[in-house]
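To: structure desk
From: M.T.
Subject: fold request, one chain
Message: Could you run this one when you get a chance? Sequence is below, nothing fancy, just the single chain.
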Amino acid sequence: MDSTPSPSSSSPFDMVSSALGRYVPRGGTAPAGNGDGPAGHAMRRRPADDPVAGRQDQILGVVNLDKDLKVIRRNLDAPVFEGLDAVPGSPFVGLLPPGDVPTVTRRLRQVLDTGEAHVARIQRLRRGDGSELVVSLSILPAAAPQEGLTVSLIAMATRLHLYAAETAIGTSLDIGETAQSLAESLLAWGDVAAVDLDFTVWTGEGVTGQAQGRIRLRRAALVPDRAWPPGYVTPGDDLPGDASRLLTQAVRRDDAPQAIVIPDRKAVERVLGDPRVMRALVPGDRSAGVACIPLVLDGTPPVVLGVVEVWRRADRPFRDSELFDLQELVARTAHHVDLARQHQREHKQVLALQRRLLPRTGGDTIEIASVYQPATPDSAGVGGDWVNSFPLPDGRTALVVGDVVGHGLGAAAAMGQLSMEARALLSAGLAPDEVLERLDETVTLLDDAESGLAAGYSALGSTCCIALYDPVRHSVALASAGHLPPILVSPDGRASTLGVRPHPGLGAEFALREPFDVHMFDVPPGSLLALYTDGLVEDPSVSIDEGIGALADAVSTVHPWDGLQQAARHVVAALAPPHQRDDVSLLLARMIGYRKGDTATWRLPARDDAPARARAHVFAQLGRWSTRDDTRDNVMLLTSELVTNAVRFATGPLTVRLIRIGHGLLVEVGDTGNGRPRLSRGGPFDDGGRGLHVVHKLTTRWGVRWTDAGKVVWAEVVR
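Reply: Done. Structure tokens follow.
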């Protein structure tokens, strides 16, 4: 078609074609197949021998669509639009990447229905060979509705493309997504783009100390997405050693990172040599020339993070201006790759800390399963969630869950400190409310709101819930500091949230501080307790109560014969959002407890005959358990010493309990005294403290735990 319409023409298509005529130089005609206008006229272009024909100044094209969004006419004769298969009668959406079809179709229909133009949408178009072209797309309505639409295409200028590419590349902290964005941006200069990163960059490790010239490359991104020849390296694969060495040596000429161009297929074969290296690096028979640009982090000396490869066909050699633009884009985005590497390293460090704190196993009286799922990789980093479970020396089991506000290493450090302190205090025999009181003081000293939030986290406002399971009484003592209520599933499958008095959390202002309460709940054998963090139940589309209810429903479906770890994974998979912005933690505990025949308890008055009565009860019980004679003698002596000590220093009734645990026996003596027994280095003539030395010699471990009525001294011996 002739690029200059008749003066009477007023359609948008003809107006844009008129504009095209002002930019296309005279002096040549396009091949007949490139013009689809009436009268068979062809659009004029520079002859092949024109010395400036390669400048490709023309960046404007136009496509006319009917009401069914099919191509009627087109004017895409500029070299930049080569390969766009806008054949008359074909659907326009065939030029779009599949993911963009719904959005662009909706825009086209909207312009048809309203008659209002849609201007300057940045859009990618697919060429027939799979490469892509970035354009500014405008949709113009026809003068008469029945005439359809006119779509004008402006190939993006280099400066604008560089800006758009850098903006897109810096939107993610995931190293794979960052590399993929870089590769997609590079397609504007070639047919195939690949990003190969140093393995230490891919894993987030440090790169400044690497040995020069000894980089192990892994393919991080490759575009376009299509079937590749056998042996070609695709994302996630390591490049062969020879290929890595060749690429790194090529871009490190004279010990300085430099871009290189291998212009044609013969030169590629000569440089790569080995057929195996050719199969790994050359994307296909049509790819002839390649530009290799080092991804360099500025420094002294500069550090090569990887190599970028842009491949072209033989009929499209690289010009100096294009190589300059390629190097500028890669240089501008190198720091984004390094930021993603640093995020990856921090993510791995925090995740390792989180994994370290996860419960290992349960025991004879309780079964434990836990799931920790970090936030999506491009979020601010792993958060401050933690779950922990550990046996206490007196036979009970501690279950702890907590959450530090924020993400990153600061939140993880605060989380680790609180978790370890809670474990130490619980192992020392403190009650859950006393542990929370001390954690509250720690949080106040650990951080202040201004400095913590500036670092992306705050220990102030952290939450924590502590549950102590007593396998003898089949009960749980629970205390919470602002945490979401646990869920208890009874043996018959009924699920309910445990009523816990609300609390403002740890580190609250003095005027808002309240005492921590301890709540007691019966948990018959077969009960299931679920502790969790808010990332599992929070959803912007529903209330928090609905989220907790959904968790209760999911946990209630766990059957007694189900594997607990697999059940925990299923619960998280069913409830966790697909693109979670917060960590998810779940701790499931199935209560087993001691059998009735494995425990024996006696209450004795605090009189002088109490040791003798205690020995008689214990002797009879050990006989029923068929305990060995040497073990029985040790337990008898141990019981006598503990009861004697209680009668001497305490008032009120005594409680003696004998528990058969695994390969040992646990002896407990409770009294109403508040003095703490201490093992001291007494002199040869000191009478005080000799009993505790006897206890220390006979046991594998012993200790004290505090109760509301007084204390319990416990000791463990091997059967």
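Reply (cont.): The CA atoms of residues 553 and 576 lie 14 Å apart. Let me know if you need anything else for the meeting.
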